[in-house]
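[#protein-structures] MJ: dropping MATH domain-containing protein here for a structure pass
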Amino acid sequence: MTNDEKNFVYKQVFTGFPLRERQSYCGKKESHFSFPWRIYLYTDQGLVYTQLQCLKFAGSDDWFVDAHVQVYVFGKSGEELASRK
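AK: finished. structure tokens for MATH domain-containing protein:
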């Protein structure tokens, strides 16, 4: 990591959705480094997909995002069913 790198943590908890159905869920919008960000969760046939989206283009070609995502899936009784780091 260099001195000019910026980091942030976006945490979103989604509850009460069936994994077997095709659904999409939208997280809350958060501002980090003057840019709005939002996370999306998609489920289909037992699979979970995540998408982190910057909602405003910076207007510069000299930047990029290196994202590290952790996903945890818990059952109704609170037991961890799956995790992905």
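MJ: nice. Residues 23-84 form one domain.
AK: one more thing. The chain has one domain: 23-84.
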